[in-house]
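ingest -> fold -> write
write: protein_1
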Amino acid sequence: MEKTFVMLKPGVLQRRIAGELLSRFERKGLKTLALKLLRMDRGMVEAHYAEHKGRDFYEKLVEYTLSGPVIAMVLEGEGAVAVVRRLIGPTSLPDAPAGTIRGDYAARTRLNIVHASDSAASAEREIALFFKPEEFCPWDDGNQDWF
């Protein structure tokens, strides 16, 4: 099974829609292995978004991410990276279709409400940035044949 990283950004908590978004991942059959609410510091945000440094939106992205707590999680499932990316939809809101998280809930591209790893390599790096091995809670749901 593949693991991926997802971060619900401050706008999710401000709008009180965290439960709705978490349930979308669960209904798709993804298993939560780690979950936490945290306030990131500038160094952590800059490390997380290092590949965007120098882009015109970088500083606003950093400030937005620092504006409130985030929910970080590790999800597991078959093809988890691709499954989550399809669930959240494209970053650009005009391209995000109804039925995706961004299409249904995001109001502005620059204040995107969710981040998800775009590859297995990114997932590994991001998971390690946010979680220690002892913070994982592996479990057997007994439903592997259902999904």
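write: protein_2
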Amino acid sequence: MNSKRIDISVGAALSVFSTAVFLYANQYKGRGVSQYGPNFFPQFLSALLFITSILLIVNAVRGNYQKDLEGIHFAGLVRSGITVGISIVYLVAMQFLGFFLSTLIFLYAMITFLGQKGKLVRIISCISVSVIVYAIFKFFLKIPLPEGFLHFI
């Protein structure tokens, strides 16, 4: 089985989806903290998705597709399910623990689950990424984040 039909179908579905998101985000008017309004980021991402979905279709039509597809690997499916589960727990935990602490725990859990060796590297990575993302949202973008029951930051 080859992926030509799959690539064309997925590309078409994603281009329709990205167009719908672009049009839906257009209803958000006003100005944000900077000159960009609340519709800028969703429309930017949907435009990128539209471009890449069209490129997927073009590549499939040109013959640049995978000739032989492998079957679904059960281990990969389980790992994907666990990743989605950890992400859902993160979203729920954010309301109780706050953005910073839940992001710190989420990143550590994901990095550990994905196989990163070295505890010190994991800890430093999680703390630095959490601090940087928190600072960007809190101070640069001025977007309020869930604080949870800990109001220490």
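write: annotation protein_2
Helices lie at 4-25, 40-62, 74-97, 99-113, 119-140.
The chain has five helices and no strands.
pipeline exit 0
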